[in-house]
Write a structure and sequence with these properties.
Homodimer. By secondary structure, the protein is mainly alpha-helical. It is 53% helix and 7% strand. The strands form two sheets. It has a three-stranded parallel sheet. A two-stranded parallel sheet has the order 4-5. Helix 4 (89-98) packs across helix 7 and helix 7 (125-139) packs across helix 8. The two termini are 34 Å apart. The chain binds adenosine monophosphate and tryptophan. The site of tryptophan has 14 residues, from strand 1 and helix 7.
Length: 332
């Protein structure tokens, strides 16, 4: 009998334009894993709406992210790509899991604390429950491995706790997933303030590179990236700006930071930055061309997300039914 392939699940929420951080920290890893695993990649639109989204932007970005997945090299024939809201079991499982998740655990989530800090009284209950929906996403597919950036590690640990708790309360139901966090691109930092992660929600656009930024914009942003006055390419926390650029180059070129440091010995930042910029441009340019092309072919995109939802529905409903039965809900 053929051995069951291990399952991978991951997603990105369409709450802003995707950055180089999303690309290197998430998507590029997925492309490498697709041959070995049975992969599910969703566009997490239900996570995006935990903060207010302009409906037309949400629609545009949802399809753009799906196009980026495909353009980056995720094969539609081999993988299940779908839009989270097309698979109702996610919301249902999320409710069932919410009932055995504690307020205390959710209020300790650093992403929640950061995001809700300046919201006053208008923090949505969805933002608070965000990690439970993410646990449902993951647990429904008997996922073995979850490739994400470092910022999602805490959410993943909570998903494991929630899954283990359910298994103990009722009986073994879920596979408890492991995280898969690539080292060099685990956290791509802001180009203007390398103490913060590169994020689309930053105010200063020079701090982030968007996957869809034109080449000349990418070159300008890299040339303006904050470094230091040391003038040597070293991989150390004392030079966070340079370290971040090394991480970017390392992730794109599959070179170790040590190899990069060795190569730039005796050279200044100008050469180094130019190479970083060119590496990014040559990585992203083909992806951008493909995305633009895909976005003009809505029927093709639709065929992919429909097929994805069909498969995802089938698998997730099986798990949801098990959950309902164990909890004591009457089967319809
Ligand atoms: P999000 O955009 O928050 O939905 O994140 C989607 C995926 O991209 C998650 O796996 C994140 O961990 C990853 N990610 C986002 N920003 C970065 C970053 N600056 N560096 C590395 N990974 C990131
Ligand atoms: N919350 C994740 C993020 O912001 C996106 C996400 C939603 C996700 N569901 C997931 C990631 C399931 C991994 C697995 O990055």
């Amino acid at each position: 009998m053929e051995e069951r392939k291990k399952v991978i699940f991951s997603g990105i929420k369409p709450s802003g334009e995707l950055t180089l951080g999303n690309y290197l920290g998430a998507i590029k890893n997925w492309v490498k894993l697709q041959d070995e695993y049975d992969c599910y990649f969703c566009v997490a639109d239900l996570h995006a709406i935990t903060v207010r989204q302009e409906p037309k932007d949400l629609r545009r970005r949802t399809l753009e992210i799906l196009s980026i997945y495909i353009a980056a090299g995720i094969e539609p024939k081999k993988n299940t790509m779908f839009i989270q809201s097309h698979v109702p079991a996610h919301c249902e499982a999320s409710w069932l899991l919410t009932c055995s998740t504690y307020m205390g655990e959710l209020s300790r989530m650093t992403q929640y604390k950061d995001k809700s800090k300046n919201m006053g009284d208008s923090i949505s209950a969805g933002l608070f429950n965000y990690p439970v929906l993410m646990a449902a996403d993951i647990l429904l597919y008997n996922t073995d491995l979850v490739p994400v950036g470092k910022d999602q590690k805490q959410h993943l640990e909570l998903a494991r706790d929630i899954g283990e708790r359910f298994n103990n309360l009722y009986s073994p139901t879920f596979t408890i997933p492991d995280g898969y966090i690539s080292t060099s691109a685990a956290k791509i930092m802001d180009l203007q303030d390398p103490s913060k992660k590169m994020s689309k929600s930053e105010e200063n656009p020079n701090g982030y590179i968007l996957i869809m930024d034109p080449p000349e914009v990418i070159r300008k942003k890299v040339s303006r990236a904050v470094t230091d006055s040391i003038g040597e390419v070293n991989y150390t926390d004392d030079q966070p700006g340079v370290k971040n650029l090394i991480n970017i180059l390392s992730a794109i070129k599959s070179l170790s930071p040590e190899e990069i440091v060795e190569f730039y010995k005796g050279k200044g930042y100008a050469d180094f930055k130019r190479d970083v910029a060119e590496a990014i441009v040559s990585e992203l340019e083909p992806v951008q061309k493909k995305v633009t092309e895909l976005l003009t072919n809505k029927d093709y995109l639709e065929s992919i997300y429909k097929a994805g939802a069909e498969k995802a529905n089938y698998v997730s409903m099986k798990t949801l039914r098990k959950m309902q039965k164990k909890i004591g809900l009457i089967q319809r």
